[in-house]
Amino acid sequence: MEKISENETSPSKVRSGLTSASFLALLYSVLIFQPAMIWLNLAAGTQLGSVGWISLIIFVELARMLGKRLTRQEATVIFLLSGMGWSMAGAPFFIERIYRAYYAQSEIAVLFNLHDKIPPWWASLDRNAWLYRTFLHPSWYTPLLLGVAILLLGEAVNISMGLIMRQIFVKEIKLPFPMQEVSVVGIINVTERAGRQRDILLFGAIGSMLYTFAIYGPTFIYEILGYPAGEPPIPWVDFSPGIQRLLPGACFGIATDLLYLVNGFILPFNIVMSIFIGSIAIYLVGNPLLIHLNLTEFAKEYFHGMKVAQIMYRSNLYAWAGPMVGVSFAAGIIPLYLRRHAIVDAFKVLSRSEATRDVMSLPVLLGVWLAASVASVIIAYSLVPVGVTYLLIMLGMSIAWSFVWTLINTYSLGVTGVQLSPPQTILPIIKYSYISLGRAPYDIWFIDPIIGVGGTGWCGSFYIADRTSTDIKSYIKTFLIMLPIIFLAGFFYVQNFWKMAPIPSIMFRNTSIFWPIRAVNDSLWITGKMFHAFDPMWILGAFLLTLGVSAIIHILKLPANIIAIAAGVGTAIPIAVTILLGGIIGKIIQMRMGADWWRENRMTLSAGIAIGSATMLTLLSVITMMSKSLWVMPY
To answer: Three-class SS of residue 67?
Structure first.
């Protein structure tokens, strides 16, 4: 921390974000917030809001009370890493292991005749370890060590890919990363509090808090008092039954989360409209066509009054999951091809040591990425050696597919602010083909090589760090320092929650409801009963159709964006509608206040809305957690 004075450090000077102040703030976030996040996930299936904003605000105000202030670099590290406790390196790692042990012991696995096909390196199969509810049992050693190895290799893959994507899309092509820019503006305004910007930030935060309480508050209050809350408008207000009178199979709604409205403020209006067009193409046009033409199992299962969530799940399962792969791939490679010279130039720059002295050189980055990817393939193959062909498939998925998809996804994030959903069903289809042909045991289902798609998220974080003049090395170093702390804290907290009561159980209500449902879905995938939507002709047709639409847009110079249309195809229509509403509201504000005012202040307003929403959700979650925990006390 630095003392408040009139002499400001130049914002362009890159400084370290790793200091005693930022480290203490991160320790506080892990040790204090992680138990609350575990409880809320197990008991209610909810999250604690944005821990990054809450931690940052707490420590900014604490520093101010001490007559000091956090630098923007310290604030960046706190904001980006405070939520690490809920990454796969923390509590979720161990909660997932408990789920695996539950699945192995469950009646559902017996019902699907899978109980004797689960390998001992995937989960503890020992009945005593399950009854005594402890990780400190010999049957857990191999699953935990294997999980840690895959976790570390995955982080190496994702960080190295994130650094490569940073050079391409942040440094060379200079994409705008609109949603990351909101975080940048929020960090700067929270730490530096410029006059008018501060007022706009507070206006957005207060308005967002009041709105969030109005939407979520009644549900939390009823939950605390033990009364049924009815059907709250979360995550959206559903108008599907009304529109289905005109369009059977369609769905429609309005998302109630203000952060989607913020997307509309930030994104260019042509991007907003493209996302909306992609969404309505599926949910207002495609689904009614399926019903009208009696195509796929969705047409048979559909009934009037189906809700948005049901329609999305069933139509994607039976019809759209495969075509979405074709759309995403075609939409991704087109802009990459058009910008191929810039990408090649980025690699040339990256290969020069002077261009990468702030982190590491291209050969080192590629070496780390390839070594970690190949190591994960070797681990997977050593556990299930099913032939050279499958080994080559795993290498192709882990190296070639990961790299191409990360390029596509990062471009999407940088342009639209939305990540494309990775097509995670390709390898499962290959696996089931091997199982059904008798060429592999069921063990093949329980281990994957690293198919790293996390480089996109890291690139987004690196963008925030660059924009706040935070040294990238210090950010990565802080992450690596916190990694073992978060892992050990996650082990300690989850173990103690598990000792408190069985998981699942009535005390952890969310797990008792949804873990059996997840177990059924997992069993359906393993036994090959979920591969309905992967007709190769549909995938190829979607690919060619997307290429055709892109060619029309390019030739006619239409104000549409093909990658945004692809993002819209995978976006729930209530979310697309709210993003569009945000874009329209932004246009109205621009007309009233002027284009210059809106351009200068929309990021600040958006950051205030994000901070206010996160703050109110966190407060409501903590109050609910405390009230629900009282009943287990002995008195």
So the answer is: coil
Q: Cis bond leading into 235, ω under 30°? A: yes
**Contacts by 521-524, CB closer than 8 A, 24 or more apart:** 522/103, 523/108, 523/109, 523/111, 523/112, 523/114
Q: In whole angstroms, how far apart are CA 376 and each of 319, 327, 373, 391?
A: 33, 29, 5, 11
Q: CA–CA separation, 489 vs 359, rounded Å?
A: 29
Cα separation, 234 vs 248, in Å, equals: 24
Separation between Cα atoms, residue 388 and residue 381, nearest integer Å: 10
- CB atoms inside a 10 Å sphere around CB 50: 21
Rounded Cα distance, 210 and 188, in Å: 24
Residues with Cβ within 8 Å of residue 572, at least 6 apart in sequence = 236, 255, 279, 283, 308, 312
CA distances from 524 to 60, 109, 117, 491, 512 (A): 49, 10, 14, 30, 19
Q: Which amino acid is at 555?
A: I
Using CA atoms, how far apart are residues 382 and 576, in angstroms rounded to an integer? Answer: 45
Buried b (16+ CB within 10 A) or exposed e, 503-541: bbeebbeebbeebbeebeebbebbbeebbbbbeeebbee
Report d(CA 36, CA 497) in Å as an integer: 11
- Could you read off the pLDDT of 546-593 as tens digits, one per residue? 999 988 988 888 888 888 898 899 888 999 999 999 999 999 999 998
Burial of 354 (C-beta count, 10 Å sphere; 0-12/13-18/19+) = exposed
Rounded to two decimals, the pTM is: 0.79
Give 237-266 pLDDT, tens digit per residue. Answer: 889 998 999 999 999 999 988 888 888 988
| Cα-Cα-Cα-Cα dihedral sign, residues 3, 6, 10, 11 | positive
- Counting Cα atoms < 13 Å in the Cβ hemisphere of 222 gives 11
Give the tokens for residue 106. Answer: 């469950």
pLDDT digits (tens, 9 = 90+) for 79-113: 899 877 667 778 889 999 999 999 988 888 888 88
Helices assigned H by DSSP within 437-559 = 455-467, 472-500, 509-526, 536-556
C-beta atoms surrounding 349 within 10 Å: 16
* Angle of helix 34-44 versus helix 595-629 axis, rounded to 10: 80
Local structure of residue 506 (DSSP, 8 states): S
